[in-house]
Amino acid sequence: MNSKLIQLEDLGFSYDLGKTETIKGVTLDIPANQVTAFIGPSGCGKSTLLRCLNRMNDLIDTAKITRGTIKILGQDIHASDVDSIELRKHVGMVFQKYNPFPKSIYDNVAYGLRIQGEKNKSTLDEAVERSLRGSALWDEVKDRLKTSALGLSGGQQQRLCIARTIAVQPKVILMDEPCSALDPIATAKVEELITELRKEYTIVIVTHSMQQASRISDRTAFFYLGEVVEYNTTETIFQNPSQQQTEDYISGRFG
Amino acid sequence: MSNPFQTKQGWNQRKERLSFWSLRICTYIIIAAAIFIFSNIFMKGVPTFFKAEAPYINTEFFTESPQILSVWEDQDGQEYSMTKKNYEQWIVAHPEKEIIGLKNLTASGGGILGPLAGTFLLVVICMIIALFIGVSASIYLSEYCGKGKIMSMIRLSILNLAGVPSIVFALFGLGVFCWLAPVITDVPKDNAAFVCGWLWTDSYLSFQGWGTSLLAGSCTLAIMVLPVIITACEESLRAVPKGFREASYALGATQWQTIRKSVLPFAIPGVLTASVLGITRVAGETAPIMLTATMSEKSTLPWEQVEGPWSFLTQSVQALPFHIYTLAKFPDSEHVKPMQYGSIAAFLILVMGFALLSMMLRNRLRNKLKW
Ligand SMILES: Nc1ncnc2c1ncn2[C@@H]1O[C@H](COP(=O)(O)OP(=O)(O)OP(=O)(O)O)[C@@H](O)[C@H]1O
Ligand SMILES: [Mg+2]
Which ipTM score applies to this complex? Predict the structure, then answer.
């Protein structure tokens, strides 16, 4: 089971109660402890699919799963006894635009634990340190944990968001273009971090950068118009794609 | 070599200048009106706060409530003006003097402590009620309920409520809060609309109204400012970046946790701005409190002779706008002028003080919560 942490079967999703499908029958198995990249032209539904995985789309009134199932750890996440709140504690998310709360660095990292009712100071301290170390930020911020998170640089803020996510110890981390607002140096740091995190977490990342996908991911899925065109190991996708469309896209001749 | 950018005299130039000057003049008219109002009131009103001899501050004006002012002349043509109480002592002390042309002027002597305290209490209680209800309602409106037809009708009616004249609110308050609101009492009044037993106790729940009272006035004012507050709060809730909400949900927070920890705190500066608007509106209203809360004359201050919080809330109070209204009935009397202008100046300062306070609070919070 560990090899298929997330299983999508014929998943269909619509933003307008089923009138038009944005995701049209996606079948994918995402293995544990690997980095899986979603690539594809703008508007093909990568973010939408990613947000299906932690049911963030529930927040949109007219969003609807039209067909198929998503299983995480073997459990159908749309089963009636699944609470989306509990699900999100296991499936964390990092957003494109880094969005730390305008609170202190410490409070940002402790947020997830605090809402779970954790009050014990030493437990929180420990978790904050562990998460900040885990996101390679500890040495940079350990002397100013109580200062506002907004005083950090963009790259640091994004790594803080990752720290915030791993503080609740999810199984899966979803990342939607985590580096698109960062400069190359900050990007390199975040990529390094992602490679590191793979040991403990399963990561699904959306990216527009082919180089990034090939550098950090183990498997890559190429999407086009809400469908998976090709899904394979990153090596195969980039060196020996079976579909013409995939080859055109990654070589930049397309969309 | 001719200059290709040379200024051309023509219609466009003239139009440009004309529009510039008309815009400028219109702006100056507003400024002139503001300067006139403020300087007139402060120049005539502020001297009332001070006096010529030590301690230079007219303490009486701030420590006494309005009293009847007696004005008269004696046989030598000497003019006197003092509060009625002092006048009564004065005739006893000066039996030899003849009293000519005695006039008693309502509320023109003494000070303004009663109305000042009354207005302060009305505004504070009103804002507590209005902010509590308004913030709750705007959270519900913007976070919990969808966009259906019923919702847009609710929104529309809230907006319409904002345009209702204050005298209508006054009558509503009079009918509902003064005459109909429920109280728990051992002896219900005969004219109560409806009386029933109160839970398992021996008391009654009697719908007899709160009478002309601080509470009725505050509630009426609160309902009057609710539309302003709800609309502004909703806007400031909406202005909180979506990213905060998403980040919070993605960490496994419930909707209420998200609202309480990642939305409300960042909306507070906006809510405070709304309350500044609200305060300046309610503090100046006369009609609603005239019908529901105030008396022009009252010998005790709000905190005197009260037994417990309920009797504090159901007492009638004096209020500055109503006090000013009473005084406005004596046009051009030299003896009333200090009181008239003094009250108005104090009133303006009070309202500006309220506004300044919330503004300072807002700026402090905004600096802390900038994003
Ligand atoms: N909240 C929404 N409501 C309605 N339609 C949406 C919503 N979000 C996205 N869409 C539509 O769904 C389609 C897929 O969008 P999505 O954001 O998943 O694309 P994407 O692959 O992430 O693109 P990009 O690479 O530009 O981020 C688009 O056509 C978009 O217009
Ligand atoms: Mg996207």
Answer: 0.90
